Amino acid sequence: MVEDIYNSIKNNITEPFAIFEHSMRGLLTYELCRKLQNEGNPALVHICLR
After folding, report:
1. CA of 46: how far to CAs of 29, 37, 41, in Å?
2. What's the confidence (pLDDT) of residue 24?
3. What would you measure as the largest C-alpha separation in the chain, in angstroms?
4. Structural domain of residue 34, as residue ranges?
5. In angstroms, rounded to a whole number, what is the distance separating the alpha carbons of residues 26 and 7?
6. Quick check: 4 and 15 in contact, CB under 8 A?
7. What span, in angstroms and rounded, lies between the C-alpha atoms of 39 and 23?
8. Which among 4, 6, 9, 43 has the fewest CB atoms less than 10 Å away?
């Protein structure tokens, strides 16, 4: 699932970004953030888990 989300958004990330999680599980969001960082995308500056 993380791969699917990553592949859907990776080309739209061109500058530092934040992720606001409202309906996804926190672990899924965490794993997505790790994937984004490991793939050398711009910095994640904030994550909000609700």
Report:
1. 12, 13, 14
2. 62
3. 26
4. 2-49
5. 19
6. no
7. 24
8. 4
Q: What's the number of domains the chain is made of?
A: 1
- Give me the amino acid identity at 35: K
Residue burial 12-39, b: 16+ Cβ < 10 Å; e: rest: eeeeebebebeeeeeeebbbbbeebeee
- Amino acid type, 43: A
Please state the length of the chain.
50
- Per residue in 5-48, pLDDT tens? 999 999 999 999 888 877 668 888 889 989 999 998 898 898 88
Question: Residue 46's Cα: distance from chain center in Å?
Answer: 10
